Amino acid sequence: MNLAEKLREHSRTDEARMLKQLEEAKSLLLREENRERELLSALGVDTCVQQYEDKRAAYVERQSLKQKYATDVFHIDQIRDLCVDYDLRFLPSRLYKGWIDSELGLKVRKFVKKHNLSDYDLDDSFYIMAPAKQFELKSIELAPKEYDPLLFYKIDDENYTLVHQWGSELNGLRYISAFRKRSFFHSQIHLFFILFAINMAVLGFFAITSIASALIISLIFAGGLTLLRYGYLRNDNSRDMEENYNIRLWNRDVKIVQL
């Protein structure tokens, strides 16, 4: 699985969805006269028209940035989703402590020259997407080379362009292994299936009951313990249920707490 291509695929999907929404809203906007627009606004039901105008403005801006940089431009939401799904961090390049590709210097020099960037523009403008082990957080652990960091340039607060990717391809199994770390909700699902599988294995090994009865018992067992965990964490006011998950950590320079 090529991480950069996965990001581009995500971007193409989002763009296709946006274009479809724009076409649907455009048909309504075209047949509205000014008076009709005023009436809809007075009734407070012109939301779809406003959404069309907002989405169209964002789409036009994205296309303008693509033409300016002559490459893919990714929204921060797309980057965040990929980081959450694959347990990655997105941090300023100054915090990166992993291995460096021999072509990186050349790529950055060409990028800086092409877009006429000053030293001021380079200050915290480049970001790297990589596993947490490759960044200097509270403590740094040297990471092997089997990861593929991505270097981004920050265009503005919401848009980034990919400058370079190096390393081997990220193993697709990371998507599965990172499932429980995405959010508290995902950790609950992960716990439920683990408990369900363990209970089914125990009942099956001892041949205690029929398959149907084993399924029911396992569902009750797994569901009960999962709800107990949820209730305990929810009532513990000193803890934030999402604090130690990727949905909060993906762009923070703190060490991941083991879940």
Q: Which structural class do the helices and strands define?
A: alpha+beta
User: What letter string, H or E per element, gives the SSE order?
Assistant: HHHEHEHHEEEHHHH
DSSP strand content: 5-15%
- Tally of DSSP β-strands: 5
Question: Helical amount among residues, as a percent range?
Answer: 55-70%
Report the oligomer.
Answer: single chain
| Through-space gap between termini | 26 Å
Strand order of the largest sheet: 1-5-4-3-2
Q: Outline, from the CA principal axes?
A: globular
What is the domain total for the residues?
A: 3
Radius of gyration (CA) equals 24 Å
**Biggest sheet record:** 5 strands, antiparallel
Nearest-integer average pLDDT: 76
Question: What does this protein structure show overall?
Answer:
- It is built from ten helices and five strands; from the N terminus they run αααβαβααβββαααα.
- The protein has 259 residues and is an alpha+beta fold.
- The chain has three domains: 3-71; 75-172, no CATH class; 184-241.
- It has a five-stranded antiparallel sheet with strand order 1-5-4-3-2.
- Helix 8 (184-206) runs antiparallel to helix 9 (211-235).
- It is globular.
- The model has no long low-confidence stretch (mean pLDDT 76).
